[in-house]
């Protein structure tokens, strides 16, 4: 009978930092090679770390530890934690935040936007950092309070939940050496009980400072500085530093939509030795045996299926025989055969990570099961003769060995804590993940993918791009899965880049190129900016111009069908021609250029692109269209109903096509100069459009246009436009009455967003009236597009102009007006297959809320390289202050009455207060208190200091609303001036 898998729990995300290895791949390679990763410190290193000389020179001092590099560094900016708060946080708490972030990313769950109710179960070693700060200098009550919040275990889990937006239970689990495996047990129980849908287990073991230890006779520390579990030369344990995190989900859920699990937890058990041992610090074979037996029962497996045991393995003379005896008895009684179970002992390689030891052991066991390779125990030579090896199911592997063929990949993990809290877990390799038919059909599909990356600072973005490019080249995954994971499983941060590619090699090359460019110029910080839609008019059209958007822009196809359906109802034959012009790349270009076809085709395209953009998350703050493009702009702004607009644009194209042929000529000069040249030309040409201060268009008969162009020669830039009619000239006069009649029954609505008008060059605000007749009038009057875009730039100077049709002529005009501009299309022959995706990616990098997840096809989440943490070093300044006998005695002085301190100048005083509280030396008037890591508790201290130092009553609500240094200073200046008046 098959065992019930409904209670199995998957490990979906892993992150860790262990001694002697830059990453988990390097760590695993070292374990397979049997390397010892502990470090031996030089005397100068010990003194620099803060070890007293008398201790460092003591013959019993052992200068060995599993050392964790850069343990005092912290990427506080990512978590919006101020430098001052970072200084007052235990390095363990800082590293746990980073590893929690990385593990969620590894599980493809965006930190800060996790869709599942996620619990946090955290463990840490006692805070040597807290003791170091308190030993060096006295603290004022407020600073002491902050220090306690930043170092005590009560606050570590809830801080992670707060910073990462996790809403499940947040618990600290502290049982000494078994803490983190006990935390795994309670995380599993929380999942099975429905307290959370996902669990994050994180633990740190890090002394401050990292150094050696004093080995005393009879103590558990190794006098030799070597940890040799189960070996005849074992003489004790060596300390190590590390931090680890795993993400857990019910197996069924993980298989449905998560990345491939690292392994599966089948059962866990926890107990305590009670009083049945010789002393509090002693271990108990019956208690350990009971924990292992209970875990096997919960897992519903017999020990005959267990092939590996990751032991607690401290290397102590008493602890090793007790553990060996307990495990042998439990496994033998449950069906294990002699010599069946290979024993691992991670402490031999990296030392004892204290509270993080159990979690580190679990990760090692998972790697054994994933890879099917059993590593040796580092330093093992000969079995300890005190171990009862005869008939035992346990054996120590002499070297790396493959998992026995045909045997289930199952393992046990043990962790036993001082005080007697024992924990054991049964784990097995992940089942094969079955790919859904939809995802399978999409996998490997040769289509362009959008690859997006973001970080909290430009340096991190460069590192992330380089790391991902290297990983892509090494692993060659399905690029659709990569794009999907980055879009759906990562939080969007302020510094961004986006590239496109059809293959992993192409994407890697683009990332490498982008990383190189970022190295020369820091990435711009994305920020929320209004989007202005620009709708091009006739002249930008080409056959098949809708095709680039079909598969790249969500919602485009449906919106285009709606618009084409309206055109079909107006004139079925004409509607079919519009459909062909938009979708058939082989449609005759000469027909697409005909006015009666070009105008409705451009209208349908502009409307559908705008609808697709809105569905992708980008909505306009204003719209403006050029000539015929104004009809699409008015429709998107809600002025015209789609049916009315489709009917009118059809009439407009037909009426203008019936006018006499003509031509149009673009000039590189202002409109006034053009009028002066036209006045003496005798051609009858007119200024048809004013596109900017150095750009206009003249219109009239073709022969007059050509004569005028030849007369100008090389004195001025000129370009014939792709038009067979002289729009916005007297040659269009016959069409105007028909346009007016077509609009007579149309009742326009007030625009929902501001709209720039061609006739006036001004902005009609949202909610204002727009007479229907203006759309007939604008067909004859000059297009004042340059004035309209300049007016929009005047009120929205930080806007992003988005050209929502073919070509990029309007983008150039917007850039000339000082706006950032992005074109979603291009002229025929210049449009890359990935142009629309690339443009959407550019909008995302500029801060537009593009729902990049909507741009991906069906895919599977992957384990991708996590955030490249590399923050600065944060050590509380109190630690470096003089202390005790080394301190310089203060000179005696006569007691005099204290004078009341002078009131500081608000211009400098407010800056000093902010700098003291937040830790930032460089502040500007625009600095935001809460963006820099301030919170409500710190604000109360700010208000108190401002009140005391400036002797004013602080208006708390007004100061809270002000947020920035400049605005708060202005409030203080007003209050100080009012008091002095």
In short:
This protein has 981 residues and is an alpha/beta fold.
What features would you describe in this structure?
Helix 23 packs parallel to helix 24 (629-636), helix 25 (642-657) runs antiparallel to helix 28 (736-743) and helix 33 runs antiparallel to helix 34 (936-950). It is built from 36 helices and 29 strands. It is elongated and about 115 Å long. It has four domains: 9-428, Thiolase/Chalcone synthase (Peroxisomal Thiolase, Chain A, domain 1, 3-Layer(aba) Sandwich), CATH 3.40.47; 444-520, Alpha-Beta Plaits (2-Layer Sandwich), CATH 3.30.70; 531-662 and 723-848, Malonyl-Coenzyme A Acyl Carrier Protein, domain 2 (3-Layer(aba) Sandwich), CATH 3.40.366.10; 906-980, Non-ribosomal Peptide Synthetase Peptidyl Carrier Protein, Chain A (Orthogonal Bundle), CATH 1.10.1200.10. It has an eleven-stranded mixed sheet with strand order 6-5-7-9-1-10-17-16-11-12-14, with helices on both faces. The protein has a six-stranded mixed sheet with strand order 27-26-21-20-28-29, sandwiched between helices. The chain has a four-stranded antiparallel sheet with strand order 23-24-22-25. Helix 12 (319-333) links the parallel strand 11 (308-310) and strand 12. Helices cover 39% and strands 14% of the residues. The model is unreliable at 881-897 (pLDDT under 50). With 981 residues, the chain is of the alpha/beta class.
Write a concise keyword list for the protein shown above.
981 residues, 4 domains, 29 strands, 36 helices, 11-stranded mixed beta sheet, Malonyl-Coenzyme A Acyl Carrier Protein, domain 2, Peroxisomal Thiolase, Chain A, domain 1, Alpha-Beta Plaits, 6-stranded mixed beta sheet, alpha/beta
């Amino acid at each position: 009978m098959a065992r019930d898998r409904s209670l199995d729990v998957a490990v979906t995300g892993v992150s860790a930092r262990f001694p002697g290895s830059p990453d988990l791949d390097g760590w695993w390679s070292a374990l397979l090679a049997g390397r010892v990763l502990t470090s031996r410190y030089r005397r100068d290193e010990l003194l620099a770390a803060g070890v007293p000389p008398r201790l460092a020179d003591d013959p019993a001092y052992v200068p060995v530890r599993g050392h964790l590099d850069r343990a005092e560094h912290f990427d506080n900016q990512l978590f919006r934690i101020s430098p001052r708060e970072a200084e007052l946080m235990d390095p363990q708490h800082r590293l746990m935040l980073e590893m929690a972030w990385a593990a969620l990313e590894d599980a493809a769950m965006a930190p800060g936007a996790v869709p599942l109710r996620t619990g946090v179960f955290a463990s840490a070693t006692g805070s040597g950092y807290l003791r170091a700060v308190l030993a060096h200098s006295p603290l004022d009550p407020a600073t002491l309070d902050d220090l306690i919040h930043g170092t005590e275990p009560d606050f570590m889990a809830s801080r992670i939940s707060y910073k990462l937006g996790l809403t499940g239970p947040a618990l600290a689990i502290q049982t000494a050496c078994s803490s983190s495996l006990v935390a795994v047990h309670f995380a599993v129980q929380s999942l099975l009980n429905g307290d959370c849908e996902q669990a994050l287990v994180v633990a740190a073991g890090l002394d401050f400072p990292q150094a050696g230890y004093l080995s005393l006779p009879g103590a558990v520390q190794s006098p030799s500085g070597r940890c040799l579990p189960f070996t005849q030369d074992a003489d004790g344990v060596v300390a190590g530093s590390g931090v680890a995190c795993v993400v857990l989900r019910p197996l069924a859920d993980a298989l449905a939509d998560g990345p491939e699990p690292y392994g599966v937890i089948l059962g866990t058990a926890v107990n305590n030795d009670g009083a049945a041992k010789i002393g509090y610090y002693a271990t108990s074979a019956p208690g350990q045996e009971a924990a292992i037996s209970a875990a096997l029962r919960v897992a519903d497996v017999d020990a005959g299926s267990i092939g590996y045991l990751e032991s607690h393995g401290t290397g102590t003379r008493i602890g090793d025989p007790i553990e060996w005896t307990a495990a042998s008895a439990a496994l033998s009684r449950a069906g294990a055969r002699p010599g069946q179970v290979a024993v691992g002992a991670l402490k031999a390689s990296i030392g004892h990570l204290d509270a993080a030891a159990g979690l580190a052991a679990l990760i090692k066991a998972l790697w054994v099961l994933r890879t099917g390779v059993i590593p040796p125990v580092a330093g093992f030579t000969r079995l300890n003769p005190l171990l009862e090896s005869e008939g035992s199911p346990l054996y120590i592997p002499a070297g790396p060995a493959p998992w026995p063929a045909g045997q289930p990949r199952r393992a046990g993990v043990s962790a036993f804590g001082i005080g007697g809290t024992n924990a054991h877990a049964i784990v097995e390799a992940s089942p094969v993940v079955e790919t859904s038919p939809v995802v399978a059909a999409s996998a490997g599909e040769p289509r362009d993918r959008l690859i997006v990356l973001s970080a909290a600072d430009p340096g991190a973005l460069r590192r992330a791009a380089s790391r991902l490019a290297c990983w892509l080249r090494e692993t060659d995954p399905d690029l659709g899965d990569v794009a999907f994971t980055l879009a759906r499983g990562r939080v969007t941060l302020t510094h961004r880049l986006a590239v496109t590619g059809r293959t992993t090699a192409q994407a890697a090359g683009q990332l490498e190129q982008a990383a190189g460019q970022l190295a020369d110029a820091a990435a711009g910080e994305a920020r929320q900016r209004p989007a202005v839609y620009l709708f091009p008019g006739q002249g930008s059209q080409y056959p098949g111009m809708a095709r680039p958007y079909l598969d790249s822009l969500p919602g485009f196809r449906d919106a285009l069908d709606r618009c084409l359906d309206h055109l079909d109802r107006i004139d079925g034959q004409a509607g079919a021609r519009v459909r062909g012009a938009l979708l058939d790349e082989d449609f005759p270009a000469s027909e697409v250029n005909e006015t009666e076809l070009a105008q409705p085709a451009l209208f349908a395209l502009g409307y559908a692109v705008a609808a697709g953009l809105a569905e992708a998350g980008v909505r306009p703050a204003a719209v403006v269209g050029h000539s015929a493009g104004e009809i699409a702009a008015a429709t998107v702004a809600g002025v015209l109903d789609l049916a009315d607009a489709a009917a009118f644009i059809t009439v407009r194209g037909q009426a203008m096509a019936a006018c006499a042929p003509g031509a149009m000529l673009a000039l590189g000069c202002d409109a006034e100069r053009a009028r002066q040249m036209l006045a003496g030309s005798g051609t009858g040409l007119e200024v048809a459009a004013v596109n900017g201060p150095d750009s206009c268009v003249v219109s009239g008969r073709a022969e007059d246009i050509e004569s005028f162009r030849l007369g100008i020669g090389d004195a001025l830039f000129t370009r014939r436009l792709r038009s067979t009619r002289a729009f916005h000239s007297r040659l269009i006069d016959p069409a105007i009455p028909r346009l007016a009649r077509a609009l007579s029954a149309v009742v326009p609505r007030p625009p929902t967003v501001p709209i720039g008008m061609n006739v006036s060059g001004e902005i009609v605000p949202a909610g204002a009236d727009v007479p229907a007749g203006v759309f007939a009038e604008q067909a004859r009057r000059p297009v004042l597009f340059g004035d309209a875009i300049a007016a929009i730039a005047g009120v929205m100077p930080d806007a992003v102009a988005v050209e929502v049709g073919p070509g990029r002529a309007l983008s150039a005009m917007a850039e000339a007006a000082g706006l950032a501009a992005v074109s979603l299309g291009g002229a025929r022959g210049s449009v890359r297959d990935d142009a629309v995706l690339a443009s959407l990616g550019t909008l995302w990098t500029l801060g537009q809320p593009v729902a990049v997840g909507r741009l991906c096809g069906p895919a599977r989440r992957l384990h991708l390289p996590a955030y490249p943490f590399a923050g600065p070093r944060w050590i509380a300044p109190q630690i470096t202050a003089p202390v005790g006998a080394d301190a310089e005695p203060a000179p005696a002085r006569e007691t005099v009455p204290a004078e009341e301190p002078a009131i500081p100048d608000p211009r400098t005083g407010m800056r000093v207060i902010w700098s003291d509280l937040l830790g930032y030396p460089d502040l500007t008037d625009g600095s935001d208190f809460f963006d820099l890591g301030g919170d409500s508790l710190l604000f109360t201290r700010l208000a108190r200091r401002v009140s005391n130092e400036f002797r004013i009553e602080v208006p708390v609500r007004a100061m809270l609303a002000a947020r920035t240094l400049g605005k708060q200073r202005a409030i203080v200046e007003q209050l100080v001036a009012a008091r002095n008046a």
